[in-house]
Amino acid sequence: MRAIAIILIAAIAGVVAVSVSTKPAKSKDAGLSVSKNDSPAPGNMWRLTITGRVDSLMIENVIVNRGHCSRWLGSSKVEELPRLPHPLKFGQAFEYGNYLCDPIEVQVTTDHGSQTFTWDAFTQNSLSVWKTPKVGAWQLVLTSRADDSLAIKTVVVNRGQCRFAAIHDSELLKFGQRYILITYCNPIEVQVTTDHGSSTFTWNE
Hints:
The chain is 0% helix and 54% strand. It is mainly beta. The chain has two domains: 4-20 and 123-202, Immunoglobulin-like, CATH 2.60.40; 25-118, Immunoglobulin-like, CATH 2.60.40. Strands 1-2-19-18-14-16 form a six-stranded mixed sheet, with no helix packed on it. It starts with a strand and ends with a strand.
């Protein structure tokens, strides 16, 4: 599983341990649930699925990561938004596309009201981290939770004993945007310095 809930275990030392969770926190009930899962599309993408939990509802609007998240469609760079409003009955599911970001906040407006779902609610210095194994390597994804912008300054993996390569467009991230690294070791400690401060994330393995 890919989404990481960050649990603070040593506030004074500025170190957090991370474990995995895909259940979102949510605001007031608008008659639906939202899940995110690995997309079968190529690349590092997520798929959002909205499921009706009342007899009848109408999805009127969906906003992912406060608008800082693009969708993907085949060879096209950006996918057009699906046609809304969209009706759902109890138990019916609506796949709302493949996303090029990690959806950490999804706001859905229906005729029953508006509901916001959030993942990775615990952060340090406006940053969350998850890792996933690749063939012969590991992938690290740093996700911004800053309301304004967040600038990545330095990253140190396993106290400097691990080589890595950054694959990203910019060190300056908006809310929900990602900074991706490929490491050639199992990252068990990652120190990240941004303009919001320095954070150390550890995995208990």
